Amino acid sequence: MKNWEELFVPIGNFVLADDFNRSQLSSNIDYFGLSREFPDLDNHLYHIGIVGVGFDDSDLAANIYNTPDNVRYWLYRLFKGNYDVSIADFGNLSVKTSLDEVVNQLSDFLVELLSRKILPVIIGGGKELVYAQYLAYKKIGKFCNLVNVSSTLDFKDASEQLTAWNFLSKVLNDGDNYLFNYSNIGYQTYFTPPELLELFRGFNFEMHRLGEVRSRMEDSEPVIRDADFLCLDLGSVKHADAPHCTFATPNGFSSDEICRLARYSGLSYKMSSAGFYGIKPDGKLEWTDHHLMAQCIWHFIEGYYLRKPESLEVEDHQYTKYTVAYQGYPEEISFYKNRLTEKWWMAVPVSDLGMDKYRIKEYLVPCSETDYDVASMNEIPDRWLRTYKKLNQ
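Above: the chain sequence. Below: its structure as tokens.
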């Protein structure tokens, strides 16, 4: 068995303090410190595993432990809610010989955590590390969905070296592509070539413009609920609230809105890994951005511990079924509402070819009551139609 401790260094001493309250996260996290051993994966059942990966190709000379530890400083001082936690902090990945080696070693460690049902929370680092998240799912043979909270689409020339700006093109050009769906939340039109939007729509991806999202934040919840892994780029927050991001701009989400999206992500029963990226490397501890990222992670953790189990056994008495028939259209759409969680789902049939590939007969798509209302007016919801095309092309 691989000795994972060899890949990590302990968190910095300055992260800790002597006057911690027993309800602060610092008193409830099993961390790898100078006087603390590496968390024991074999003898402890952890729910969440924190991994610091400060590697950032925007500044290769920067201290790779700086950003994760500065975020930890604020995170460890926050109070947990009224729930028991089991969180391990494995310290900081010390691999820095090359980005390829970072991605390879990180993805292997993520596989280890996922195989143990531990949810990895990555404190980055640049967005190029999202590729390691994707590779972890590929290595376990799982088709996966990515939700990217970002003002840009991160799709450039895949022939170039992996960067924060082209990780998605690297994923899509993978010959054994295991990415089933990609959703962007918060893209800004003036940073996005129109032809790229058309290309993504041709892929049946979900694209949600910043203004659209901010006008109805609750509509982001079903989008996030369908994702297996999260990339949250703090650069999607407006400059006034996060001035030291790698790509800080005047417009973006507010600090409370980005925390709300992080909370939705934690609440999602399907979400199995999360990466928080985008602060400029080698920053100062007092930067607001470090504190804001810590609060985003806190909201994610809180969401995780407030999850309500959802079996998706839609024939169970817990679900109410609604069927919508369309005039002049052969397909019916079945909607299901979970009476316990009040979450809505819609069923998408799968072709014989799709059944061979994905090993499912139908795909349950998270949705909202608004989608049901749209269907009731003899219109096919966009999310249903996009998924149908992907499963039956």
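The CA atoms of residues 238 and 336 lie 37 Å apart.
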